[in-house]
Design goal:
The structure is a single chain. The protein is an all-alpha fold. It has one domain. α2 packs antiparallel against α3, α2 packs across α5 and α3 runs parallel beside α5.
Length: 118
């Protein structure tokens, strides 16, 4: 069993090393180029909640829903598949929990850099 654990741990580290920079970059780009003030503020608040109480968002679906609600205050014109497509390029492929955390991290970085200057 130790071999399995070591192999999966190495695999997880590899995925994080390869994917995290791109997803954080995507979050930063959204924050800098697309987000409105209130959207970015709500995503930054979500990031704070995620840091304080990660168990509130135990899986990708719960976190995607929270991100959706943070971005789209009036969700009637949007759908979860549209957000999935925005994030992954495919409305049928939803991002993993880690990928969502990294996007939120990127957006929070921008908020932290600009919020006291606004």
């Amino acid at each position: 069993m130790n071999t399995v654990i070591e192999r999966l741990r190495a695999s997880r580290m590899k995925v994080e090393e390869e994917q995290r920079p791109e997803w954080v970059k995507d979050g930063r780009e959204w924050a800098m180029e697309t987000a409105e003030y209130d959207e970015l503020e709500r995503v930054a608040e979500l990031a704070g909640q995620l840091d304080r109480e990660p168990r509130l968002y135990p899986d990708a679906e719960t976190l995607l829903k929270a991100l959706y609600e943070a971005i789209y205050q009036d969700p009637d014109g949007y759908s979860m598949p549209e957000l999935a497509e925005l994030l992954t390029g495919d409305a049928t492929r939803w991002p993993s929990r880690d990928q969502l955390c990294w996007v939120i991290e990127g957006a929070q970085q921008v908020w932290n850099e600009v919020s006291d200057k606004i």
